[in-house]
Structures are given as C-alpha cells and as structure tokens.
Specification:
The complex is a heterodimer of chains A (113) and B (113). Chain A contains no helices and ten strands. Chain A is 0% helix and 47% strand. In chain A, strands 2, 4, 5, 8, 9 and 10 form a six-stranded mixed beta sheet that branches. A four-stranded antiparallel beta sheet of chain A has the order 1-3-7-6, with no helix packed on it. Chain B has 113 residues and is mainly beta. Helix content of chain B is 0%, strand content 53%. The chains are: A mainly beta (113), B mainly beta (113). Chains A and B meet through strand 4, strand 5 and strand 9 of A and strand 5, strand 6, strand 10 and strand 11 of B.
C-alpha cells in the first residue's frame, strides 16, 4: 500500500523567507510525528499529533516553527523567517493507534541560503 | 529523560561475516526499543522492535537484536552481512507512557565485498 509521502522533496529558500512542508500519512494512522535530521546528527523530535488530542509541541526549537494537522490526516510544518541553521532534512512519520513502530516518509531536504 | 548511545560512528565488515551494531540506552522504567535503517536519500525503514517477552527479537532482512536489561543494551546483529546491508542504522528508545522516540546518532555500516 501507499507509504508516508512528503512534499516537496527538496526546497531551497533564502534566509528570512517562510516555508511550508507537507506530510501525507498512511491511511488509518492516527499518530503523526515530525523530526529533523541534521548532518551527522540523529533525529530530533519536533512535534507529535494523536487523533483529536492537543499536539505535543515540546520539541519545536523556536516559535518560528509551527505545525497543523487538518482533518486528522495531512500535516503541514511551517517555518517562518528561515535561518541557515534550519537547513536539514525534515522527516514525517505515522503510526497506527495500537502499534508501536513508526513509518517514515522520504523527507524534505531544506536548504536555507 | 530517555537517550540512546551508538558508540561507533562506522562499522566495517567483510561480506559474509557477522555484523553487530551496538546500542545502549537510558530510560526510566522498562523500555520500548527499535532499530531503523536508512538507505541514501531515503526515509527510515523499520527493522525490528522489542516491546516485551523474548529478549531475542527477529526482524526484516535477517536482522535480529537482543535486549539485555542488566547492560541496558539492544545490539543489532546479522549472521552473514551482504553488500546491500551498507546503510545508516539508528537505534531508538521510548519510555512506556511517553509518546516520543529518542534516536541515537546512527551507525554507518559498510560491507566490503
């Protein structure tokens, strides 16, 4: 079946611009996660959505970062006034409510120039 | 707090030889443990997990891992490595009652023909 999809696959933006990254989870997966993967680093948790519950935003690095999940499905991660240190691969993952393993999308590579 | 240590940046192994990728974790209480693999320019793929029960868990592509509570370890193993196993391997831990995964920095595995 279809996996987690993310768009765009690559995004180059100028410092100070806003960007939106999109994630389409696997159908039926009520849990959705955003992570950031920087070169030579592990994955950094950003935000977690579960059904209609309030999201866990505790991993967002600054108030320039925000995320929404509309209709319990598609999610958008928004980064305002991008900085060079925001350059990274942004990964989305989803999970069935009664399972433990997460399934990851291919990621969006963000480059801030 | 929960954390994972993957002490080796890179593991080199000859094709056909046993492969071991080390992981130790720190978490309060009993952990959920996971291994993921990342091929170049791809998202993470789930390999296996330990939730409860048998300490030896088997996963995809002939991989297995052993949970050792006294040593707080969850090393990944494969009896006979293939060149196609060359990839980046991530260990992750989640405390029971916590929704987020903590990932290690990853181990680059290079299988030499």
């Amino acid at each position: 079946g279809a996996g987690v999809s993310q768009s765009p696959s690559n995004k180059v933006t100028e410092k100070g611009k806003d960007v939106e990254l999109r994630c389409d989870p696997i159908s039926g997966h009520t849990a959705l996660y955003w992570y950031r993967q920087s070169l030579g680093q592990g994955l950094e948790f950003l935000i977690y959505f579960q059904g209609n519950s309030a999201p866990d935003k505790s991993g967002l690095p600054s108030d320039r970062f925000s995320a929404e999940r509309t209709g319990g499905s598609v999610s958008t991660l928004t980064i305002q006034r991008t900085q060079q240190e925001d350059s990274a691969v942004y990964l989305c993952a989803s999970r069935l409510p009664d399972r433990y393993e997460q399934y990851f999308g291919p990621g969006t590579r963000l480059t801030v120039t | 707090a929960q954390s994972v240590a993957q002490p080796e940046d890179q593991v080199n192994v000859a094709e056909g030889n046993p492969l071991t990728v080390k992981c130790t974790y720190s978490v309060s209480g009993n952990p959920y443990l996971f291994w993921y693999v990342q091929y170049p320019n791809r998202g993470l793929q789930f390999l296996l997990k330990y939730i409860t029960g048998d300490n030896l868990v088997k996963g995809s592509y002939g991989f297995e891992a052993e949970f050792n509570k006294s040593q707080t370890s969850f090393h990944l193993k494969k009896p006979s490595a293939l060149v196609s196993d060359s990839a980046l391997y991530f260990c992750a831990v989640r405390a029971r009652g916590n929704n987020r995964l903590a990932f290690g920095k990853g181990n680059q595995v290079v299988v030499i023909p």
